[in-house]
Amino acid sequence: MLKHLSKNNFVLAPNRRRSSIGSCSSSSSSSSSSSSSGSSRAVAAAVLVVVVVVVVVVVAAAVVVVVVAVVVVVSVVVVVVVVVAVVVVVVVVVVVIVAVVVVVVVAVAAVVVVVVAAAAVEKVVVATAVVVLMVVVISNSGSSSSSSSCRSSGSSRAVAAAVLVVVVVVVVVVVAAAVVVVVVAVVVVVSVVVVVVVVVAVVVVVVVVVVVIVAV
């Protein structure tokens, strides 16, 4: 009986060893498969992170490039607009100043011409009146006594007419000269006002341009 049991134990022992060896091999294979799957997941996650980082970097670089390009284009456009505006303002100022100078020169020349012409006309009228009076006096001095009364009345009328003509001419000349002087004064004042307005407008435009450039 003991021999039989010992034989059975001897027979069973190799079977137990075989089963333990099989279980170890199965556990090792399962652990290796789980470790391989874990490593593949880690690799996939690392690759995904790298791809995401690369995409983010590329997109950020593209956005930066676009923003820089837009800023450069806007800056160039602003500079061009400012330069054109400054050139236009300078041209307008020069044209206005030249026009004002021309107007002032023409006005002064007109005043001079009117004053000289008035003086000449006045001299001519006075000289003519003096000649008329001299002729009347000479003609009256050589007349007879019978017709002295008639001639004296005629000469007085001629003198009155000559004096009236002189007065009218002098008044017309003086009024014309005064009108010309007033017109010239108004033109000069308007020209000065225009120059002041243009200068103020130029200063305002320059200030606005500087503010826009600083803001940009």
UniProtKB/TrEMBL annotation:
Location of region: Disordered: 18-38
Compositionally biased spans, kind Low complexity: 20-38
Keyword Protein transport set for record: no
Transmembrane segments: 42-69, 76-109, 115-138, 159-186, 192-215
Keywords: Membrane, Transmembrane, Transmembrane helix
Name used for this protein in its record: ABC transmembrane type-1 domain-containing protein
Organism, scientific name: Elysia marginata
